[in-house]
């Protein structure tokens, strides 16, 4: 299944890594309905950025999970290939 890395360029004002963890848990709760599996996420609290890695049939499916789970949509999403 393809891998996608999405980039959230600006978190809502005052959002913390704890808030991102809660949003990720919400993603995990709905991902199966869209055929997606969120694998990892990274937070740069100081810069207000979040990066999410998911296996998904399409970028559209990965976006649908965020939309349904919490409404915080990525600014960009890239199909990526994992290196060693």
Write up what this structure looks like:
The chain is α+β, with helices and mostly antiparallel strands and 84 residues long. It has one domain (3-80): ORF SCO4226, nickel-binding ferredoxin-like monomer (Alpha-Beta Plaits, 2-Layer Sandwich). It is built from 2 helices and 4 strands, in the order E-H-E-E-H-E. A 4-stranded antiparallel sheet has the order 2-3-1-4, with helices on one face. Strand 2 (37-44) and strand 3 (49-55) form a beta hairpin. Helix 1 crosses helix 2. The model has no long low-confidence stretch (mean pLDDT 96).
Question: Main attributes?
Answer:
Alpha-Beta Plaits; alpha+beta; 84 residues; single chain; 2 helices
Summarize the structure.
By secondary structure, this protein is an alpha+beta fold. It contains 2 helices and 4 strands.
- Within the CATH hierarchy, at the fold level, what is the topology? Alpha-Beta Plaits
Describe the strand arrangement of the main beta sheet, using strand numbers. 2-3-1-4
CATH superfamily: ORF SCO4226, nickel-binding ferredoxin-like monomer
Question: Any idea of the CATH class?
Answer: Alpha Beta
**Oligomeric assembly:** single chain
Count of helix runs: 2
In terms of DSSP E residues, the strand content is 25-35%
The number of distinct β-strands equals 4
Query: Strand pairing plus helix content: what structural class?
Result: alpha+beta
Uncertain spans, ≥5 residues at pLDDT below 50? none
Task: Compute the separation of the termini in Å.
Answer: 18 Å
How helix-rich are the residues, as a percent range?
A: 25-40%
